[in-house]
TrEMBL record:
Cell wall formation. Catalyzes the transfer of a GlcNAc subunit on undecaprenyl-pyrophosphoryl-MurNAc-pentapeptide (lipid intermediate I) to form undecaprenyl-pyrophosphoryl-MurNAc-(pentapeptide)GlcNAc (lipid intermediate II). Its EC number is 2.4.1.227. It is an enzyme of class 2 (transferase). This is UDP-N-acetylglucosamine--N-acetylmuramyl-(pentapeptide) pyrophosphoryl-undecaprenol N-acetylglucosamine transferase. Belongs to the glycosyltransferase 28 family. MurG subfamily. It comes from Candidatus Cetobacterium colombiensis. Residues 185-348 form the Glycosyl transferase family 28 C-terminal domain.
Length: 358
């Protein structure tokens, strides 16, 4: 008999894309899948666009007692949707958005699974791993940090990535993007939300980058900063074209075509870099809460990436323009990344779920 799986996730691409990857595998194998996320963040569009049923709840960050109170409605909504849909299992993909469904699911005696994208366990997964059947981890370093008595709750699978990444090839993607034989592709991305410091550093060097005909830049600015950037570029008489955008839907394809990536160290971007064996310069988001520094350290400690702090974003761009011309250095970094690659995580996760016996 087909089982029903409830997936709860949201907030940023880094939490949503791995959930979609697992959701698609489950659909392919005949399961019914329903997503629950925030009614106001990017999952409300991204998830239905991918053809999934989506229920939005009015959930807010749990920063203080007042915010916890304002979340009472979200707990009631979560309770109602679980009662109505009667899922066989619930999978949480981290972030505060997953908390109401995970809590109500636990109270209602549902089987809970978790997926952690980052090197450090996030707040939601820390709260629920003890009641979960399994928590799937992206990186080996996370497992090593967990106390021996709890390790049986965890399994390292890697991050579930968009399926087409596993068959992508650099030359084909370069042809598709019409990249010239002598052109080097420099991708700059601040993750799904954009990165202000990185954007400001790029603006300063953009004229020089444009003058250099051997470099083709792709720059994802994030929605929030795009208007301001647009204005600054107009002032410099630089045309915003299809290579400077708030968000690229074909990010994976551009990544595959890239010679060097300058980016934040969101967990998904780091996992995609590993899968595509790309050299990178990382500028982790400056907040302990989101743990990007620990994600970046995995690549840096393997000499597979260079790491810069937010305040040194200018230097990071300068360095990028220097090493993008150095094939030997790029190849070395790329070989070292290859050692960190994992196999298809979504396949592994789906196989481990307790839904295959009737
Ligand atoms: C500020 C913040 O809270 N950041 C967190 C957020 O990152 P955030 O979602 O920003 O970053 P990630 O790198 O994890 O994921 C971004 C995803 O969006 C895709 N993409 C990005 C830009 C674009 O133009 N097009 C596109 O498709 C990337 O290919 C990637 O798949 O969730 C991650 C996963 O839990 C965390 O590691 C980050 O710390």
């Amino acid at each position: 008999m087909n089982k029903k799986i409830m997936i709860t996730t949201g907030g940023t691409g880094g939490h949503i894309y791995p959930a979609l990857a697992v959701g698609k595998k489950l659909l392919d194998r005949g399961m019914e899948v329903i997503f629950v996320g925030s009614s106001s963040r990017m999952e409300k569009d991204l998830v239905p666009e991918e053809g999934f049923k989506f229920v939005g709840i009015d959930v807010f960050p749990f920063q203080n007692f007042r915010k916890i109170l304002s979340n009472i409605k979200s707990f009631l909504q979560a309770f109602k949707v679980i009662k109505k849909e009667q899922p066989d299992i619930i999978i949480g993909f981290g972030n505060y958005i997953s908390i109401p469904v995970l809590l109500m699911g636990t109270i209602l005696g549902k089987k809970i699974y978790l997926q952690e994208q980052n090197a450090d366990l996030g707040m939601a997964n820390k709260l629920f791993y003890k009641v979960a059947k399994k928590c799937f981890l992206a990186f080996d370093t996370t497992y090593e940090e967990i106390s021996v008595k709890d390790q049986h709750k965890f399994l390292v699978t890697g991050n579930p990535l968009r399926e087409d990444i596993y068959t992508m090839d650099k030359e084909t993607e370069r042809e598709r993007l019409k990249i010239g034989k002598d052109e080097k592709v420099l991708l700059i991305t601040g993750g799904s939300l954009g990165a202000k410091s990185l954007n400001e550093a790029v603006i300063k060097s953009l004229k020089d980058i444009y003058k250099d005909k051997t470099i083709r830049i792709y720059w994802a600015t994030g929605e929030k900063n795009f208007g301001e950037i647009n204005q600054k570029l107009e002032d410099q008489q630089i045309k915003v074209s299809d290579i400077i955008k708030p968000y690229f839907n074909n990010m994976i394809n551009i990544m595959a075509a890239a010679d060097l990536i300058v980016c934040r160290a969101g967990a998904l971007t780091v996992s995609e870099i590993m899968q595509l064996e790309k050299p990178s310069i990382l500028i982790p988001y400056n907040s302990i809460k989101v743990g990007q520094y620990e994600n970046a350290k995995i690549l840096e400690e393997n000499n597979a990436a260079l790491l810069y702090s937010d305040s040194k974003a200018d230097e990071a761009i300068e360095k990028a323009l220097e090493i993008i011309k150095n094939d030997e250095e790029l190849n070395k970094m790329s070989r070292r990344v290859k050692n960190l690659k994992k196999s298809n995580a979504a396949d592994k996760i789906v196989e481990c779920l307790d839904i295959w016996r009737s």
